[in-house]
Design goal:
The protein is an alpha/beta fold and 257 residues long. The chain has seven helices and eleven strands. Helix 1 crosses helix 2 and helix 3 crosses helix 7. The longest helix is centred in the C-terminal third of the chain and has 28 residues. The radius of gyration is 19 Å and the shape is globular.
């Protein structure tokens, strides 16, 4: 069993692969804790999915939260003595980075693109939805050539509600309104956040296609709601476990090292 661990700003996603097949995937809160507490959470997650630490043959970890990385690695070492790979300089991904500062690329972005490239031909763009929305582009030569970062819809709503006096929270997973003309405050917010974000993604998709080519495919992962994807005119292929799959593929590429 190979364990993949992705430390994000909101969640720590843990997945297990056995003989190339995803065995389970679960999320832990990324709230700061001690190494002992992380170890307990990991054991509970493994137990929930009928797995045992003794089954772990390898671990690969990606992190965008340096303050948590050491604690989670220490917790993993309490569970297993196998090699723990960390995505970064020294690990082969098979992906060429045409960036000004490749070391600044978020590990989860690299992993997601690696998995998407294994599924379909380039050019492509991969949408990562968490606290922020990030879109990374791969050209026809299979090179990661850049992307965009912007606030995610949940972050936009939270900021808007916290900084205004009378705007309510709305459910961003509810169906997108059929009309952009909201008849009350909640409907106006839903139209703005859902349809506005969909139009934003469609507009960016047009610009990505203009630079990468009209045949560009779009993938998405993370907490991009199905209603929002449906509201987009751009065809978006959603893959829930894209980052975990990419981590596993990078582990396979480096397992002999």
């Amino acid at each position: 069993m190979i364990l993949t661990v992705n430390i994000g700003n909101t969640h720590i996603t843990v997945a297990a692969y056995a003989e190339g097949v995803l065995h389970f995937s679960g999320k832990l809160s990324a709230a700061s804790a001690t190494s002992d507490e992380y170890a307990i959470r990991l054991i509970h997650l493994l137990t929930l999915h009928h797995a045992d630490p003794q089954q772990i043959e390898g671990v690969i970890l990606a992190s965008v939260v340096p303050a948590l990385t050491g604690k989670v690695i220490a917790a993993l070492r309490m569970l297993t003595s196998v090699r723990i790979m960390t995505v970064g300089p020294g690990l082969k991904s098979g992906l060429k980075l045409r960036l000004d500062q490749p070391a600044q690329l978020g590990a989860e972005l690299l992993c997601g693109v690696v998995a998407a490239m294994a599924e379909g031909p380039a050019p492509m763009a991969v949408i990562f939805s968490d606290t922020a929305l990030s879109i990374m582009a791969v050209n026809a030569q299979k090179e990661l050539v850049g992307g965009v970062i912007l606030p995610g819809p949940q972050l936009s709503m939270t900021s808007l509600v916290q900084n205004t006096a009378q705007l309510p929270q709305v459910d961003l997973t509810a169906p997108a309104p059929a009309s952009v003309l909201g008849k009350n405050t909640s409907a106006c917010l839903q139209a703005g956040l859902l349809l506005g974000t969909a139009c934003l993604l469609d507009g960016l998709a047009d610009r990505f296609r203009a630079e990468l080519g009209p045949e560009t495919r779009f993938y998405a992962t993370g907490n991009l709601p199905a209603n929002l994807r449906k509201a987009c005119r751009t065809s978006i292929l959603y893959r829930e476990n894209l980052v975990s799959d990419g981590l596993y593929r990078i582990w396979l590429r480096n397992r002999k090292g």
